[in-house]
Amino acid sequence: MSNSSDPTAFLDGLIAGYQGVAQSWECDLMGHLNVSFYFGRSSDHAFFTRHALAMSPSQMRAQNIGTVALEEHVRFHREVASGGTMIGRSAPIEIGEKTMTIHQEFRDSEANLLCTFKTRIGHFDTAARRLVPWREATLEAAHKYQIAQPDFSAPKFLSGNGRVPAITREQTQAEGFVRCGGAGVNSWECDQFSHMNTMFYARRLTEAAPHMWRAMGHDLLDGVRQGLGSVVGEICLSYLAEVREGDILETYSSIREVNEKTVLIEHRLFNAETGELSALARLRVVHFNLTTRRAQNWPDDMRQTIEANLVPLDAAKS
């Protein structure tokens, strides 16, 4: 295992991969790269990580193997505007029999840190649809690249979702969560492993958010016209069941905590046909001044509205 106090040596020791630019059509009404496209970059970079870990595209196709994300912790360190450069690097930080935790980071061309991912992945048999032990060649390569998790990517406010219980859609509704999204899963949203790509889980979250705020009487567009918005600072997303082409997803959302400048939002994605919980995400969202590009206190009236609609994390509702 290696790590270094020398920034250049540290970066040179990571697996190089994705290198590109944020496009204008990927940016949202807050004026920066939308969360779903960070996940898209993460997915693009994962091709290079797998290849470095002795899992080439041809090998995976021949052996019916791949990887599947189990949980992702993401921190957003700096805004990326249209035209901003993005360079991806990664390395394993924890190595198990069937799973591995990967550090992944994106920096601009000046080496400024933009975003970090801590992703727990599993070695996936694409025919049997189950986790299997890593091959020796992959374990050997993983140990060669392994690093200690950098402090800058460690969880700040969200330590992890832990073991998510079997939550039902009916229970979710009874708790006070509001239906904020509904969509089918298209073929172009699925990856080479025949399930929905992580980018499109994130898309469901970003599309649900305006409906959640609207249900509380707040229009995001009105806020933007006044120079106020919200940005995601941190996400923890647990993938609980496979989502395949043709499935139907519903998103239920609520605010679980409110602080001076932030809220904790929880989104639950359900399979509309089976009622199965497919994913659960918690997001630390910051109230944001679009002129100063800094965090700002919630206005009193908006905070009162949030508190009136809060579904506290410790609420025990049947």
Report the CATH C-level class of the largest domain: Alpha Beta
Counting structural domains, the number is 2
Order of helices and strands: HEHHEEEEEHHEHHEEEEEH
Which structural class do the helices and strands define? alpha+beta
Distance between the termini: 47 Å
The CATH architecture assignment of the largest domain turns out to be Roll
- Runs in which pLDDT lies below 50 for 5 or more consecutive residues are none
Report on the architecture of this protein:
- The protein has eight helices and twelve strands.
- The protein has helices at residues 7-12, 35-52, 57-63, 136-145, 169-175, 198-215, 220-225, 300-308, and strands at 15-21, 65-76, 85-95, 99-107, 113-125, 130-131, 178-184, 228-239, 248-258, 262-271, 277-289, 294-295.
- The N and C termini lie far apart (47 Å).
- Helices cover 25% and strands 34% of the residues.
- Strand 3 and strand 4 form a beta hairpin.
- By secondary structure, the chain is an alpha+beta fold.
- Helix 2 (35-52) runs antiparallel to helix 6.
- Strands 1, 2, 3, 4, 5, 6, 7, 8, 9, 10, 11 and 12 form a twelve-stranded antiparallel beta sheet that branches.
- The longest helix is centred in the N-terminal third of the chain and has 18 residues, at 35-52.
- The mean pLDDT is 95.
- The chain has two domains: 1-154, Thiol Ester Dehydrase, Chain A; 159-318, Hotdog Thioesterase (Thiol Ester Dehydrase, Chain A, Roll).
